[in-house]
């Protein structure tokens, strides 16, 4: 049985029927449970050294269900980070609000970003999200300029997430948001008021 768009096809008889709302809810619940379980395990200092079996046991999800949606634990990490970013971004908060939420997840990231596998996945996912945020404000900007700016900003953001928040030199989320906003604006060559890095607005709110 496969699902495509709003239609579910039963391969045994070649027929198609509308996908049930309950199916989509169960899929979202399973993916969410796996994502939460992985972030919990990462926060416990296990990095990506976790088996699919252990992950599924923690999430209360079967191995076949895992492999229906993900190819590996690394693939799940990318999805989990993206889901977390989207959750923080969902209610139209500022860029500083997103950083504040990530800072609260320091146990999940922190020292785990010293693991190159974790670092590469988190970096790639956050960078793609940053590109989307910039282009949401200014879709007319040159793609190379945007990716250059997003790459540098993401690098600084990941390093910031690794820092100990208790360190006297550690920037608060609001200050870090202002710093990244200033650097991105300079890199893409626009006025500060033209780029917010926040989901809804044309005005910089950081």
SSE diagram, text form:
Layout: E1 2-4, E2 7-10, E3 15-18, H1 21-46, H2 52-59, H3 63-69, H4 73-89, H5 95-104, H6 116-137, H7 143-162, H8 173-188
Antiparallel strand pairs: 1-2, 2-3
Helix pairs in contact: 1-2, 1-4, 4-5, 4-6, 5-8, 6-7, 7-8
Features:
single chain, 206 residues, mainly alpha, three-stranded antiparallel β-sheet, 3 strands, disordered N terminus
Describe this structure in words.
This protein has 206 residues and is mostly helical. The chain contains 8 helices and 3 strands, in the order βββαααααααα. The chain has helices at residues 21-46, 52-59, 63-69, 73-89, 95-104, 116-137, 143-162, 173-188; strands at 2-4, 7-10, 15-18. The protein has a 3-stranded antiparallel beta sheet with strand order 1-2-3, with no helix packed on it. Strand 2 (7-10) and strand 3 (15-18) form a beta hairpin. It is globular and about 50 Å long.
Quick overview of this protein structure:
The chain is mainly alpha-helical and 206 residues long. It has eight helices and three strands; from the N terminus they run βββαααααααα.
Distance between the termini: 47 Å
Biggest β-sheet: strands ordered side by side in the sheet: 1-2-3
Structural class: mainly alpha
Shape: globular
- Which bin fits the share of residues in helices? 55-70%
Query: What do the pLDDT scores average to?
Result: 80
The number of helical runs is 8
Could you spell the SSE succession in H and E letters?
EEEHHHHHHHH
Rg, alpha carbons? 19 Å
């Amino acid at each position: 049985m496969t699902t495509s768009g709003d239609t579910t096809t039963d391969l045994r008889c070649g027929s198609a029927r509308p996908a049930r709302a309950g199916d989509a809810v169960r899929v979202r619940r399973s993916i969410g449970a796996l994502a939460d379980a992985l972030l919990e395990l990462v926060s416990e200092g296990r990095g990506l050294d976790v088996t699919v079996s252990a992950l599924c046991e923690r999430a209360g999800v079967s191995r076949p269900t895992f492999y229906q949606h993900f190819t590996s634990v690394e693939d799940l990490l990318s999805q989990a980070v993206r889901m977390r970013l989207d959750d923080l971004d969902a209610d139209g908060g500022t860029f500083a609000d997103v950083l504040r939420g990530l800072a609260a997840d320091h146990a999940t990231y922190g020292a785990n970003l010293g693991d190159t596998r974790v670092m590469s996945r988190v970096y790639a996912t956050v960078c793609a999200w940053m590109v989307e945020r910039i282009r949401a404000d200014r879709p007319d900007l040159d793609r190379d300029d945007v990716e250059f700016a997003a790459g540098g900003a993401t690098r600084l953001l990941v390093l910031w997430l690794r820092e100990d928040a208790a360190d006297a030199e550690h920037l608060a989320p609001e200050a870090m948001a202002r710093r990244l906003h200033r650097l991105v604006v300079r890199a893409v060559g626009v006025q500060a008021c033209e780029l917010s890095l926040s989901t809804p607005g044309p005005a910089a709110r950081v």
